[in-house]
Sequence to fold (694 residues):
Amino acid sequence: MNQDHENRRPHGDPSEKRDYPRENKPHGERRFDKKPGERRFEDRPKGERRFDDKPHEGHSFDGDRLENRDFRRDERPHGERRFDGNPHGERRFDGDRPEKRDFRRNERPHDERRFDDKPHGERRFYGDRPAKRDFRRDDRSHGERRFDGDPREDRRFDDDRPAKRDFRRDDRPHGERRFDDKPHGERRFDGDRPAKRDDRPYGERRFDSKPHEGRRFGDAPHGEHRPEARSFGAPRGDRMRRPNRPAPQKSARDVALKALGDVVGNGAYAAQALDRALSEAKLSDEDRRLAASLFYFAIENRLQIEWALGKLLQTRPEPMVADILHIAAAQILFMDRIPDHAAVDEAVKQTRAAGRDGLSGMVNGVLRGLIRLRDEEGLALPGRDEQPEEYLSLKYSLALPAVKRLIAAYGVDEAERIAAFAPAERTQTVRPNTERLTDAQFEAMLDKEGLAWKHGTAAHAYVLSGAGDLSRLDGYRAGLFSIQGESSMLAAQAVEARPGMQLLDACAAPGGKTCLMAEQMGTSGRVYAWDVYPHRVELIRAAARRLSLENVRPAVHDARRGLPSLELAMDAVLVDAPCSGLGVIQDKPDIKYRLKEEDFESILPLQREILENCSHFVRVGGRLVYSTCTILPEENEAQVSAFLSRHPEFEPDTDDSWLPEALRGKSADGMLTILPHRDGMAGFFIARMRRRSM
Fold:
C-alpha cells in the first residue's frame, strides 16, 4: 500500500488507523453512501453487502480499493474468498484480475481453462507463477504431471514449450517420454525443434534414412538417441557438450604443404614459413627433417618443376592442388630416397584430404605421366651452349632477369658457379652477447647444450651444425646470444663502434646489426635504428629488449627523408640498403624465382636516394658504411663510385685492418664483395667512406 493511501482518512473525525478494531465495524444495511464516524479506509461492511453492490451518490469503488496501477497480487486479502468463489450479479472477472495486458493463458479462470490444471484450496495463479517474461522451463512444477500427459481439447504442446527459437534438443526432458513419443491432436513435430541441421540428434538415424509416414528430416529421430546434455531445466552453463574430436596428426608432407602455401600465396620468407609450420605440428626429429627436405626441394627447384609439369598440364590448377603437385614432383625428380609410387599415392591422399576428391584422378595421372617423361628422357633442358640463359634459369630455378645480369657481370662459367653453390650442410651462425658472456663462457654453454660448433670467419662467430630451432633454448630467450649470418656481422663490424658514440642504422630491421653495434658500445652512447614499416620497427625493439640493450632508439622513419636535428651529428652511419638479394639465395631460396625485371629497375634509384640523404648525418671525420646482400656490380661498386664522384667531401676508407685475416687483401678502394662459392658465406657487399671536410 503506497504512502498516500496509508495516510488517507475516511469522512468524520480522524483517529489513528490501527486503533480501530475490525470487529467494531457496523452491521446491518449500512451502505457505502453512509459516512462513518471513526471508520477507516480498509474497513469493509459485513452483512448484506455483496460484490454486486454499487456505490451510491457518486461514491465509487475507487474509494474502496487501491488505484489499479498500485495493486499487486500479493496484497489481496486472505480469508474465505478464493479464486473459485465466483462473483455474482454484474461483477465480472475483470474486477478480479489485473489489466488485460498482464493476462496470461496460464492464469485463466476455472470455467474456460483447460489442461486439468484447476487450482485447489488457497492456490492462486498470480501468486504461484512468475510473470511471463521470467518464466523458464526449469520453473515448472514437478509432480504427477509429465510430458507424456496428453493435452485435452484445444490445448497444444506448443503451450508446454518455450518459444521455438529458444528450444534445443538438449533441453528435452528425461523420464518416461521418449523421442519416439508421438504427439496427439494438432501437435506437429515442426514445432518441436528449430530448423537447424546441426541440432539433429545423433543415434541410429543416418542422413540416408528415409522418413516414415510423412515425417521430415527436421523431425526428432526414433531409436536409441539419448540426449547427452543436461537434464531438462538445468541452467545453460551446465549443458554437456560432445567431446571435441582430436585433430588428425599432421604428417611431414602436411607441414611442407602448409609452409609452401605460405611462401607462394602470402609472400612469406622460406625459413620463417617453415619454422611456423613446424611449430604448429608435433613431429619426430626424423619427420621434421623430411618436412624440411620436401619443402626446400620444392622451393629451390620451383621453376624447373613448373616447366616439367607444364608439359602435362594444359591449364594451371588451383593453388592448393598446384602445391601438392610441386611437392610430389620434387620427390620424383630430386629425391632418390622416396619411391615414386609412394610419392604418387601420398599426393592423391593429400588431395582427397584437402576436399578435392574430384581432382585426385588428375593428380594421379599427371604424376604418373611425369615419371614416364623422366624415364624416357623427355625432360631434357635447353642446351647450355646454345641457350645459356634459359639453361641456367631452368636448371637452377633462377629468374631469367637475374641470370642475364649475373652472366653480364661474371660470365657464364662464374655465373653458373654462383647459381649452383649450395653448402654441404645447412648450418646456423650465432654470436654471444659480449656484454654478458665471454667467448669461453659461450663455448661452455654450447657444449652443455650438446651442440656441434666451430669458429666462423668473423669475430665472435660460431657455426653450428644440426642445431635445430635455436630460439627454443633458454640461453637465447635470456638474451645470451643472437642468431646472425657472418656477412651481416661483418657489415656491422665495419662501422667499428666504440663506447659513447652516436650511431645511425638507417635501414635497421630486423635489428641484428643494430644490436651488435650496441653491444660493441658497452651499452653506452646511442644507436638510432630506423625502418619505414612499424611492424619491422617492433622487431628491432623486441631484439633490443631480449638482449637488455638500453642504448637502442628504434623509430619509424623513411631514410630518404631528412631530419635537421641529426645533421652532422653522427659518428658513423650504416646504410644497409634494399637490394635484389642475390647474395643470400642459399638462405632465402624463394628470392630466386620472384625477381622480375621491374624489381631491378626500381631498386637502383631507391638505393641512390637513401645513400644521398643519409650522408648528411655524418659528422666531419665520421664514417659512412654502405652495404647490400647482393653481388651485382650495378647495385654495389657502381653506386659507391657514383656517390663519391658527386660528393668530394667523402673519400674511400682503404684501411682493411678491421677485416678477418681470411678476407684481407680481397678489398679494393675500401670496397669488399663476398662471394658465397668462394668465401663460404652469404654474398655481401661492404664499402667504407669517411667525411674529410664540409
Q: What stands out?
A: The CA atoms of residues 396 and 420 lie 7 Å apart. The first strand starts at residue 427 and ends at 432. The mean pLDDT is 77. The first helix runs from residue 3 to 7.
